[in-house]
Write a structure and sequence with these properties.
The chain is mainly alpha-helical. 71% of the residues lie in helices and 8% in strands. The longest helix is centred in the middle third of the chain and has 30 residues. It is elongated, with a radius of gyration of 22 Å.
């Protein structure tokens, strides 16, 4: 897992590699100012940090079955003595681990 500083270095390099970047204000296209570039680097660094720290949440939400489907799995597990629901939840968690 990368530190926030390491991710910021990556973000800085990515922005530098994409230069020149333009913006459009009131239909006028111009290159980003030094302040705009600095803010873009900070924003990208923060986005990378957030994705590393919290990206697993969205990934898990997308991977889980719907609540009605999970309830159905739980019902049939209880009826059949199986662990389908627990196994599915464990797989989602192992595929999308929470950062330490």
């Amino acid at each position: 897992m990368a530190t926030k500083e390491e991710l910021q270095v990556q973000a800085d390099a990515e922005i530098e590699a994409k230069k020149p970047l333009n913006k459009s204000v009131n239909g006028v296209v111009s290159e980003l100012s030094d302040a705009d570039y600095a803010q873009a680097k900070v924003d990208l660094g923060n986005a990378k940090w957030d994705e590393q720290q919290f990206g697993y949440i969205a990934a898990r939400q997308e991977a889980y079955a719907s609540i009605p489907d999970q309830l159905d799995q739980q019902y049939w597990d209880a009826v059949n003595g199986t662990t389908t629901w627990k196994d599915a939840v464990a797989k989602v968690k192992s595929d999308n681990p929470k950062p330490e």
